[in-house]
């Protein structure tokens, strides 16, 4: 906590402070002085006793020439506590925050979010700093948290409404189509007739390219063409900071299509941030870098001792790459395995992980990096070796 035990000057009473403290009853002087100095530093009163360290209390007690009793130096439940708080506010020129103050703080904080981000803890600190600057006592922590989250929500709503207003009806329709199942047209590189229900087109765009090959390249090119067909207007995100775009893009990449934001234009705006195609100069630069990388690869591959070019099925150009040497296991993992073997012989860490999943189903909360999974979770889970469950149960009875 700033000023608590770190800054000696923050916990020094001024002559005027000392004179004010001496007007109090002897039993209340230390508590009043500590509260006064804490309030001056933080713009609020301590929320918990642990916010004021013992060393701080001792330092203030020495200035007053009194003894510091360990924990019972001030009774926070008494009427004296309330009266002293009001007196300290008046002495320092502060006042309690009102509903109107909270609304003004929310509006001010909303305008700061584009530059500083949306981490709630950082916004809470910013609100408290703003309150000190305005000589307003910082509201309770839960109220400050509500102000911060309301500012985030209001910022998102205004941002989405602004972007939506710049999208034409055709562009909106094409963005909304990403949330519907993809058409399974024959010959389409991004179609998959074997999928039972067809996943949303957005999931196909987010899917992993899979094993390198001609089909994978064609599939990725088809995705890029689909993104370009959306035809986002030029300059749509002019003035928007990169970290803001990244935040919306990460949200789209992590959420399922049915979790699209309910705010007006929220879904379309998040999708627009996600599928924003690179500008032409960037594309030209990427293509030039790729060509240079391919030339370097082509020139170095025949002489690379870890690469073998061979013939297979009467075709030339089969490339075999030597696998990397396995990396050593982390020391903590080795120690964990040793402890498991010592406690439950014949049971390894993987067995315990599988048995835990059989009991708790914790893998249900894990999301696949691909658009869909080949095996259903309920069919995959029981496929762990039968000896795993047996060893676990028998060793548990022994332990």
Walk me through the structure.
α7 packs across α12 (266-275) and α11 packs across α12. The protein has 4 domains: 9-93, no CATH class; 99-164; 169-182 and 200-275, no CATH class; 331-398, no CATH class. The two termini are 46 Å apart. It has a two-stranded parallel ribbon. The chain contains 17 helices and 4 strands. The longest helix is centred in the middle third of the chain and has 24 residues, at 141-164. It has helices at 15-21, 29-42, 54-64, 79-92, 99-116, 120-133, 141-164, 169-177, 201-206, 214-230, 242-254, 266-275, 280-300, 331-343, 349-360, 377-380, 386-398; strands spanning 95-96, 136-137, 307-312, 315-321. By secondary structure, it is mainly alpha-helical. A hairpin with a 2-residue loop joins β3 (307-312) and β4.
Concise account of the structure shown:
With 399 residues, the chain is mainly alpha-helical. The chain folds into 4 domains: 9-93, no CATH class; 99-164; 169-182 and 200-275, no CATH class; 331-398, no CATH class. It has helices at residues 15-21, 29-42, 54-64, 79-92, 99-116, 120-133, 141-164, 169-177, 201-206, 214-230, 242-254, 266-275, 280-300, 331-343, 349-360, 377-380, 386-398; strands at 95-96, 136-137, 307-312, 315-321.
> What number is the mean pLDDT?
78
What structural class do the secondary elements suggest? mainly alpha
Strand order of the main beta sheet, please?
A: 1-2
Strand percentage, roughly? under 5%
Write down the domain tally.
4
Overall morphology: elongated
Sheet with the most strands, sense and barrel status = 2 strands, parallel
Helical region count?
17
N- to C-terminal distance: 46 Å
Helix content: 55-70%
């Amino acid at each position: 906590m700033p000023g608590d035990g770190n800054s000696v000057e923050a916990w020094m009473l001024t002559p005027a402070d000392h004179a004010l403290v001496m007007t109090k009853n002897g039993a209340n002087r230390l508590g009043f002085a500590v509260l006064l100095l804490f309030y001056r530093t933080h713009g609020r009163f301590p929320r918990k006793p642990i916010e004021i360290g013992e060393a701080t209390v001792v330092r203030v007690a020495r200035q007053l020439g009194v003894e510091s009793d360990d924990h019972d130096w001030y009774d926070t439940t008494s009427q004296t506590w309330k009266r002293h708080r009001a007196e300290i506010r008046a002495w320092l020129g502060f006042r309690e925050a009102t509903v109107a103050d909270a609304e003004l703080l929310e509006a001010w904080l909303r305008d700061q979010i584009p530059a500083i981000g949306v981490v709630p803890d950082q916004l809470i600190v910013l609100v408290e700093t703003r309150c000190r600057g305005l000589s307003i006592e910082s509201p309770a922590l839960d109220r400050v948290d509500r102000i911060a989250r309301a500012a985030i929500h209001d910022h998102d709503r205004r941002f989405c409404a602004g972007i939506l207003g710049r999208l034409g009806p055709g562009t909106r329709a094409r963005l909304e189509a990403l949330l519907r199942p993809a058409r399974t047209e024959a010959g389409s590189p991004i179609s998959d007739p074997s999928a039972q229900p067809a996943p949303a087109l957005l999931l196909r765009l987010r899917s992993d390219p899979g094993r390198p090959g001609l089909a994978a390249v064609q599939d990725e090119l088809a995705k890029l063409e689909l993104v370009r067909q959306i035809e986002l207007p030029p300059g749509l995100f002019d003035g928007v900071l990169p970290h803001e775009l990244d935040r919306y893009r990460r949200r789209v990449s992590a959420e399922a299509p049915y979790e699209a934001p309910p705010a007006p234009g929220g879904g379309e705006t998040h999708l627009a941030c996600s599928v924003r195609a690179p500008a032409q100069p960037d594309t030209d630069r990427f293509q030039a870098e790729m060509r240079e990388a391919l030339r370097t690869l082509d020139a170095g591959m025949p002489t690379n001792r870890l690469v073998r070019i061979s013939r297979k099925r009467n075709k030339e150009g089969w490339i075999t790459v030597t696998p990397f040497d396995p990396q050593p296991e982390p020391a903590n993992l080795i120690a964990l395995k040793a402890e498991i073997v010592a406690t439950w012989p014949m049971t390894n860490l993987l067995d315990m992980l599988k048995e835990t999943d059989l009991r708790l189903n914790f893998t249900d909360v894990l999301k696949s990096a691909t658009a869909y999974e080949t095996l259903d979770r309920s069919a995959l889970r029981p496929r762990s070796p039968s000896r795993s469950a047996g060893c676990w149960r028998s060793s548990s009875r022994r332990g």
